[in-house]
TrEMBL record:
GO terms for molecular function: ATP binding. The keyword Translocase applies. Transmembrane segments: none annotated. Residues 16-258 form the ABC transporter domain. It comes from the Bacteria. Keywords: ATP-binding, Cell membrane, Membrane, Nucleotide-binding, Translocase, Transport. It comes from Pigmentiphaga soli. This is ABC transporter ATP-binding protein. PROSITE patterns: ABC_TRANSPORTER_1, ABC_TRANSPORTER_2. InterPro entries: AAA+_ATPase, ABC_transporter-like_ATP-bd, ABC_transporter-like_CS, ABC_transpr_FbpC, ABC_transpr_MalK/UgpC-like, Mo/tungstate-bd_C_term_dom, P-loop_NTPase, Transp-assoc_OB_typ2.
């Protein structure tokens, strides 16, 4: 057994390794301590981008700050580029300025009295680089973010999106190999956000740095991540490729946080090796059992509480009852044309169900429609109410 909180010595090409990390805060005035990082372990590989995703207050920034050395964790171990920078057991704490990382903040954090050039040059000057190298590296980094022409401006003379580009250039210029991002795009407008997101991915591919990227925006997470770590209350609920998390969430929490999901709690009415019948509030739903069970697939026994997840795009809509299983009559509540999809909301029994179809000639004014779902497109999860302690 691996000793808790100790890193494995045979770790391969991981650039960031976190093992058994815990950080507690005592609230002013007493009460139970807050535990924003709760026995967390994960790695970020070479040239990999891992996104920490979760709701406000779940502990994303605290975890990032522990890795940067801006917070001192209570337990566990952190290693960057193979060097242990924190170990509670061995009493190691390397200060932030001696950790081989760069950071990009939500608020840009540029020096207002320094030009764009000097801001980007700052980490190289701190490391004692010579003038020739500074000039070449800074102009290369500024060209990469399309700002070479603005090198002599001050931060107050350029836009917010341009300021964040400067912060990006400053983060990559010392070639630390590891860049931490804390919601870097949340202060810029939607269009600039998309451009910068693509630029970060492009720079990452070109320079090959490893990134740990905090956001609460699931679209941003899916677009930029090699792997997404979904955080809930200080713990990693699931970590995996965006496709894996989307199609095989391990819990109703993950399913509802990533993309939109219809979640139907119920009880197992019958099960065999190919099908599970779940009794939901609006009828019996047949769920196909995959040949290889994904991570979140719950123990199935008659009467066990479970949740069925249906992504809106797996639900078909028609005027006739589908001939196969899983056909339910519904009342149309709304229809919205969203370009790529037409989204319907239907009331089936008391359950409000969302369906997204490529096109449909069923009008919003029509009262009712049938929904149909192929059992193999449904996902069985543990019972969300039990998990939430209700
Ligand atoms: N210095 C501190 N002292 C006490 N509690 C703190 C401190 N810093 C953070 N917390 C608490 O820790 C929890 C996690 O905070 P954190 O900033 O890590 O959340 P977050 O996931 O980054 O949220 P957001 O998306 O809003 O930025 C919160 O409950 C917060 O109030
Ligand atoms: Mg935060």
């Amino acid at each position: 057994m691996e000793e808790k909180g100790k890193l494995m010595d045979n770790a391969t090409d991981a650039r960031i390794e976190v093992a058994g990390l815990t950080k507690r805060y005592l609230r002013r005035g007493g009460g139970k301590p807050v535990v924003p990082v709760n026995d967390t372990s994960f790695t970020v590989g070479s040239a990999e981008m891992v996104v920490l995703l979760g709701p406000s207050g779940c502990g994303k920034t605290t975890l990032l700050r522990c890795i940067a050395g801006l917070e001192r964790p209570d337990e566990g171990e952190i290693s960057i580029n193979g060097q242990v920078v924190f170990s509670s057991r061995r009493g190691i704490f390397v200060p932030p300025n001696r950790r081989p990382i760069s950071m990009v903040f939500q608020t840009y954090a540029l020096w207002p009295h320094m030009t764009v050039f000097d801001n980007v040059a700052y980490p190289l000057r701190c490391r004692g680089a010579d003038r020739g190298r500074i000039e070449a590296s800074v102009m290369e980094a500024l060209s990469m973010v399309g700002l070479a022409a603005l090198a002599r401006q001050y931060p107050g003379q350029i836009s917010g999106g341009q300021q964040q580009r400067v912060a990006l250039a400053r983060a990559v210029v010392p070639r630390t190999g590891v860049v931490l991002f804390d919601e870097p795009l949340s202060n810029v407008d939607a269009k600039v956000r998309e451009q910068l997101r693509a630029e970060i991915s492009r720079m990452q591919r070109a320079l090959g740095f490893s990134g740990l990227y905090v956001t609460h925006d699931q679209v941003e997470a899916m677009a930029i991540a090699d792997r997404v770590a979904l955080i809930d209350d200080g713990r990693i609920e699931q970590i995996g490729a965006p496709e894996e998390i989307y199609h095989h969430p391990v819990s109703p929490y993950v399913g509802s946080f990533i993309g939109s999901a219809n979640l139907w709690p119920g009880r197992v009415a019958a099960c065999d090796r190919e099908r599970v019948t779940v009794r939901t509030s609006f009828g019996d739903v047949q769920v196909g059992v995959p040949a290889v069970l994904p991570a979140g697939w719950p123990q199935v026994a008659p009467d066990a509480p479970v949740t069925v997840m249906a992504r809106p795009e797996v639900i078909a809509i028609g005027r006739e009852a589908p001939s196969a299983v899983n056909g339910f009559a519904g009342v149309i509540e709304s229809k919205a044309f969203l370009g790529a999809n037409v989204e319907f909301t239907l009331l089936v029994g008391k359950e409000r169900i969302r369906a997204a179809v490529p096109r449909s000639d069923i009008a919003a004014s029509e009262e009712s429609a049938w929904i149909g779902i192929d059992p193999k497109n449904l996902v069985l999860l543990s019972d969300g109410r039990a998990a939430a302690g209700q």
